[in-house]
Amino acid sequence: MLPLRDLGPAEAAALLDARGVSDELRAPLLAFAGGHPLALSLGAAVAIRDGKASARWTPSQDVVATLLDQLVGEVPSPAHRHALEVCAHAYVTSEDLLRAVLPDQAAELFAWLRRLPFVESRPGGLYPHDVVREVLEADLRWRDPQGYADMHERISAYLAGRIREASDPEVLGAVGSLFFLHRAVGSTARFQSWSGDGEVYEDHFHPRDTESLVRLAAEVEGEESAAAVAFWAPRRPEAFRVLRRTASGEIVAFCSWLRLHEYAEEEAAADPIVATAWANARALGPLRPGEHLAVGRTWTRPDYQGASPVSDLIQWRSIGYCLRADRMAWSFMAMRHDDPMRDYLRYYDIHDVGEHAWLGGTEWALFAHDWRVAPAQAWLDRLNRLLLTGAAEPPAAPARRLAVLTPGEFAQAVRRALKNLTRPGELAASPLTRSRIVAETGADPAAALRRLLEQAVAGLAEDPKAAKFHRALAATYLHGAPTQELAAERLGLPFTTYRRHLLAGVERVCEDLWHREIYGAPGS
């Protein structure tokens, strides 16, 4: 006996023709079964018998169950079945990933998976045959929706952690694996290929590449775009990444990710896209001290445009920048205004924000996300909700969006919150309950705000120079003195001295909390 391998596209189409499958049904059957002969034959038989089958055909649970019996068969235990389901959901499964989901038996289960006839390996881990992957996914999601959700959230959390902690070259794989979890929702599959392993690779920009990049930009976008590349490449070489064909080293695409902290006339004059990004940021939500905005651009040869290994790597790099960024307020991705990716980006909460840029005769839209309003974890949580609820369209906004306050607004809100420290209703209405420092606690907003204020006041006691400020704040806000005059009396201080200490203490609390709002908690 010889093993029957997957059929090629022409052979798969011939098998469906021989089974009498209509043209309308061919596409969904091929999408489900690929070239797997058994899956094609079984799917064709069922679809033909179903008089209502159409171009939207999907396999019934009877088909899924039959394929599971034929392709997978019995497994040794529920833990082994769970390991198979993890392998089906993830792009590639490593022992480390298994350990995050099944901590007690990861090594044993990984060894079992790699011996299965329908599981193969690639750099990074194991993956199952496409049909096995699809039937395991469909079965678990139908049979145990909560188990599916729990598994997905564990895998997603593991990959999000890898993105944050990985070395620079490992980021691409981690982001690609995260996107793969969402392959069946929105239009993700149209704009991600997860193919061409090793066909192209990402390389750092080297000054000797400048001429090639300028020439490529001129070829695909025109002289104005080439002039922008010539301006930025020597000034910000670290912002550029180059995509090369593995076989020849030829540059087939490149991208840039400019991190900009301050508006500069020279840069705006040299690059209309950067000038427009600054204009949009000023209009929609200006940067605060310590924040920056980023502008992403891509240049790709025509034969690699659309869904391709090059497009995959560029997208993964861009999202990796966003999820790893430190104090980024806005990200802007420049694309032609009629680019078909606009709806795809909307699913990922990246929107055309209005004012467009022009280079020569080409109109460019700037697709933006405010990472202060919906930071990285909120962005990931939203994607998970969309996947697990099966939403066809993304909601207009996350359920809870953060407030972006100026330094003055923030300080005013802190002063008011200190005065209302013992009034939960007033604290709940404070804009600080929608600030980063409160939202990141994950606790009840009013209670979390009160704890933060109390901790900030208590922290002053640790500084000998601020101990007198701490006493004034504690007497006034923590110990509930009915009036400031009574607080001064309890402290044994002249009222003017007490007021000076109190105001200085409030300013210190405002400064300390603002620093945390912008820069994060110590050690984060």
By DSSP, the count of extended strands is 10
Task: Report Rg.
Answer: 28 Å
CATH class of the largest domain: Alpha Beta
User: Percent of residues in helical segments?
Assistant: 55-70%
CATH architecture of the largest domain: 3-Layer(aba) Sandwich
Strand content: 5-15%
- Overall mean pLDDT: 86
Biggest sheet: strands, sense, closure? Answer: 8 strands, mixed
Topology:
Elements: H1 9-18, H2 23-33, H3 37-49, H4 61-72, H5 78-89, H6 95-101, H7 106-114, E1 119-122, E2 125-128, H8 130-143, H9 145-165, H10 168-180, H11 188-191, E3 200-204, H12 210-221, H13 223-235, E4 240-245, E5 251-260, H14 265-270, H15 272-284, E6 292-300, H16 309-324, E7 328-336, H17 342-347, E8 351-352, E9 357-359, E10 362-370, H18 376-389, H19 407-419, H20 424-428, H21 436-439, H22 445-460, H23 467-478, H24 484-491, H25 495-519
Task: Walk me through this protein's architecture.
The protein has four domains: 9-58; 72-181, Orthogonal Bundle (Arc Repressor Mutant, subunit A), CATH 1.10.10; 200-389, Aminopeptidase; 407-519, no CATH class. Helix content is 55%, strand content 12%. The protein is built from 25 helices and ten strands. Strands 3, 4, 5, 6, 7, 8, 9 and 10 form an eight-stranded mixed sheet that branches. α10 (168-180) crosses α16 (309-324) and α22 (445-460) packs across α25 (495-519). The model is unreliable at 395-400 (pLDDT under 50).
